[in-house]
Every structure is written in C-alpha cells, then in structure tokens.
Amino acid sequence: MKRPIFALIFLGMAASVFAQQAGPRGGGRGQAPQPPPLFFKETWKEAPGNVPVTQAFVVNPDLQLNIYGAGKEDFGVTSEGNMPHIWTGLCASSCALTLSHKDSFVDLTGKAKIRWYTKTSGFHEVRPVLKLADGTWLIGDHVDANTFDYHESEFYPAEVHWLKLDMPKVQTKGTLLDKVDLSKVDAVGFADLTPGSGHGTGGYSDVAWIEVYGKPVKRDAATPSN
Length: 226
Known about the structure:
Number of domains: 1
Strand content: 35-45%
CATH superfamily: Galactose-binding lectin
CATH topology: Jelly Rolls
C-alpha cells in the first residue's frame, strides 16, 4: 500500500526540479539581444543614361560619397534596367566607392551586418571595403559575383577576413589580419579589383543599393570624414 505514496512523492519532486530548470517565461532574463539597427541605406538617384557618379546622386542627405582608383572618374551611375545602380565597366583599374555618415561612425562588431543588391559580369567580384576611424583601410574576403541577375545578399563583417588596402590606389597589402577592431568604422563601401571592359557584357560590377546595420558612434567634430 506504500508504493503509491512513494510514487506521488517522486513525481512531485521531479515536477519541482523541472520547474526550477525551466525558469520563468518572458521577462528580461534569457532574452536574445536585439539586432543592431539600420545605420544607413543608399539607393542612388535616377541618372540620365550612364554618367560619372558624384555626390549629387546620393539619396541619403547624411552620407558623404568618396571614390578611389586610377580610373575613378569613370565610376558610373546609371538607371538602365529601371533601377539606379553604380557601374564599374569604365573603371580603368581597380576602383572603390565608400559612404560615410556625416555625424557618426558605426560599430560593426558582433551581429552588425551589411546587405546589398548586386550583379556582375565576367569574373568580376564585389568586395566590402571599410575605413576605420584611425584611417586604416580594409578589404574583405567576402565576395558576391552574380552573373545571372541581381541578387540580394548579406554578411557579418565580424566573420570576414580582412586585408589592408593601399588607398587611393585600391591595392591590397600584406597578409590576412589576425584581429581587426570594427567598433568604430568611418566609411563603408565596396571595391571591384578587376578593371572594367567597357560597355557590353565583358566585365563589370553593378551595385543597386546598400544597407548597413550597426550601432552609431558619435563622430568627433575635430575629425571629420574625408
């Protein structure tokens, strides 16, 4: 007759242990951290044909455009295909384009990410480029090369392997870096390390829009971006 009593006691103890392990639902404890906010997005303004890209084609009024490379005057913006986009077909050498927020650096550590909408031709590749607050330039081993059509992709800069970049030549330097501090990034953009082949389908990269997700870090008024 004692067995049912022992069974009830055992079940009660098991339920108590399970409740302690499960912990309270909801509340602040144990919740996943919120993803970083959208820091900026750029979609480019409509262009009359294919023309050299300038600050006038930047939609976001808080962003400063910079372009680099021996053929940077040939960095184009076009609305061909019913979508404004940057085009590297006339870049005479490797070239890069970056955007800086006028008021803030951006923290690209942790789950911070970059999303963009790209298309390429030939063996061209779109790679991320960063300028750190101390002036160091970096280029990443992440590549997007979508020759069939535009493709939306995203990646975490914290997972990318980085090389130093010689600017304004847009040339890689040294070997992959073991550690990079991405807590204060001055500029974000992309590079095409292969010279363009001109009009047609020979070789180029297209970047239609770019989004950067990360925490803003107030820019020191004494160190403006350039």
